[in-house]
TrEMBL record:
Keyword Disulfide bond: no
Localization: Cell membrane
Species in which this protein is naturally found: Pacificimonas flava
Protein name: Probable peptidoglycan glycosyltransferase FtsW
EC number(s) recorded for this UniProt protein: 2.4.99.28
Length: 387
């Protein structure tokens, strides 16, 4: 029995019968997994931080995460009820606001671990780059989709300049990881919009150049890359993450029974995947990875028959953000990628990250709302050919 009848014409009724309930269920499942994972990681995180500022309770971070979920879920549902034109306006205005915040960071920002990425607002820290990601993705989708209405529009140039501006501001923090993530998503969107392989190759070379620049001018970046390729230097973080994963085996030590997590840096954020591995086992890790894969597959499958270029480019980009960010976080925790401070979507503790993901997912749910797909579309045929 459903909550709403098909004849229900209220706002909630129309939303329920047009929203992608499968995608929504996957997001809710990831959020539930996140609460369980933060509960497991919270005692270790609280113990590592207690004494530095004030005494934290064992479940301090779980209580905060529950608060963020309580704020973020209604926010996600509210955004998902917005119309496509409103989503587009929200993204453009949000991109402008986030760029302004990034410009103001050197003056208003607080330095943490050698990087200036956060603005202190009444006892909480706001990270503009987290909110920038979904806003930028939808904005560039709008710019790139304009070429399907007018081929003379310099869509690639305009969006490329915007990418360069955003990338430059992120590198100033410095934050090369977010820069590469956003650039990779833009390349994917541009390819779907018709950018040639030659131009994509040039963008890829530019990305390699940015990484090389970071390697030579940033000791922090060079040390991470050197540790990954040579195994020399301070490998404490990844060693402890691998210890936690080994301790869990296939089925884990059991909820609350993990001990390696107490030596793990950032167990509630960057390395929460290792905590899941220790207490719930490698099978649970594979299940979490499968949930992220299911989100991406669900979105791209639904988009195969989409007739609106803007919707396709925006939704594909938002799904790619979730998938790529999850891949990077899990890759770092398993020593498949160099260390990078990037959260596991919907699972890691964090206010800015979780709320920004809720906004982005709300946009994704809004853009994919429909009662049925159109069966014939030149753009849909083009997308199937590209796939």
């Amino acid at each position: 029995m459903t909550m709403f009848s098909r004849s229900d014409r209220t706002i909630l009724g129309r939303w329920f019968w047009t929203v992608d309930r499968t995608l929504l269920s996957l997001i809710l499942a990831l959020t539930a997994v996140g609460l369980i994972a933060v509960a497991a990681a919270s005692p270790a995180a609280a113990q590592r931080l207690s004494g530095l500022t004030f005494k934290l309770g064992d479940f301090y971070f779980l209580k905060r995460q529950i608060m963020w979920v309580g704020v973020g879920m209604p926010l996600m549902i509210g955004v998902s009820m917005m119309s496509k034109p409103l989503i587009r306006r929200l993204a453009v205005l949000g991109t402008a606001a986030c760029i302004a915040a990034l410009i103001a960071l050197p003056v208003l920002g607080a330095e943490v671990n050698g990087a200036v990425r956060w603005i202190n607002l009444g006892g909480m820290q706001l990270q503009p780059s987290e909110f920038l990601k979904p806003m930028f993705i939808v904005t560039t989708a709008w710019i790139l989709s304009s070429r399907f209405e007018d081929e003379a529009m310099p869509s690639f140039l305009v969006s490329g300049v915007l990418l360069a501006l955003v990338g430059g501001l992120l590198i100033m923090q410095p934050d090369y990881g977010q820069t590469m993530l956003i650039a990779a998503i833009w390349v994917g969107q541009a390819f779907l919009a018709g950018l040639g392989l030659g131009a994509i190759g040039m963008v890829a070379l530019a990305g390699v150049g940015v990484i090389a620049l970071g390697y030579f001018i940033s000791p922090h970046i060079s040390s991470r890359i050197d540790r990954f390729f040579t195994g020399e230097g301070d490998t404490y973080q990844i060693d402890k993450a691998l210890d936690a994963l080994r301790a869990g085996g296939l089925f884990g030590t059991g909820p609350g029974e993990g001990q390696a997590k107490f030596s793990l840096p950032e167990p509630h954020t960057d390395y929460i995947f290792a905590v899941i591995g220790e207490e719930f086992g490698m099978i649970a890790c594979l299940a979490v990875a499968s949930l992220f894969l299911a989100v991406v597959i669900r979105v791209f499958t639904q988009l195969m028959e989409e007739d609106d270029p803007f919707v396709t480019l925006a939704a594909a980009g938002l799904a790619a953000q979730i998938g790529l960010q999850a891949f990077i976080n899990m890759g770092v925790a398993t020593s498949l990628l160099p260390s990078k401070g990037m959260t596991l979507p919907f699972i890691s503790h964090g206010g800015s990250s979780f709320l920004a993901l809720c906004v982005g997912t709300g946009m994704l749910l809004s853009l994919t709302r429909r009662s049925r797909f159109l069966k014939s579309s030149p753009f849909a045929s083009q997308m199937r050919s590209a796939a």
